Task: structure prediction
Amino acid sequence: MRDIAQVVTGSRAIDGAGVHLVRVLGLPTTKAFDPFLMLDAFDSTDPRDYIKGFPWHPHRGIETVTYLQKGHIIHSDSLGNSGDIRDGGCQWMTAGSGIMHQEMPQASERMLGLQLWLNLPASDKMTPPKYNDIRDEDVQVVTQEGVSVRVIAGEYEGTKGVMNGDHVKMTMLDIALAPGASFSMKTPRDETLFVYLTRGSGLFGPQQQALEEKRAVLFGEGDSVSFTAGENGLDLMLFMARPLHEPIAWGGPIVMNTREELKKAFDELDEGTFIKV
Ligand code: FE2
Result:
């Protein structure tokens, strides 16, 4: 059984044009959490925390996966896509060779969700950009006693997610446990696996370590993972993917393998040649 390798609480940050969020994963965690680069979590009932949004900005070399448990975000990009992410919806954007986009949260009763940055392998950093919209009704739900699992990407108990990951195969599950309910699943031994506790508390790993909401738990290698919800239940997101073991050169919204590639990206932004497609 996988043991706990690291617990991360993250820190409060302001990004975009003034969005208050918690940066859970970032530069300091890239090695341990490979291929997951960044995780921003937001949970607010005050639109002033997020209404300024993330106006037009570039990305290259990564995929961004935005998932809203509650709320509303309007999105548009340089490919001509535009759309809404709403309660239970997810947007999977492959920035690849380069994209410009804006992400504008709309005033909502509660804005609860996260954005994950998934690294692209060196061979796919310059793949043509693309965009996938997953709506709440597209997501299949597996229910067992006291456990409900929304399969967003990958597979769980024979139920396939809407996405699988064209570049890095990722399992992404939104799991809700009733008070005292347990969850366990078999896992490929060497894939990186972490959970982010959205709400509640639970017991994790073979030592049954008690952990509270709003933190990420990285597990070590192993053939299975399991956890049990505390007395108020537990909502968490589970992410799993094979690590890339490649060098990382990270500059703001662009993540490449070398400093030269990073410099080229910023030169192209200056020269207006960044967008290839
Ligand atoms: Fe972005």
Notes: The mean pLDDT is 97.
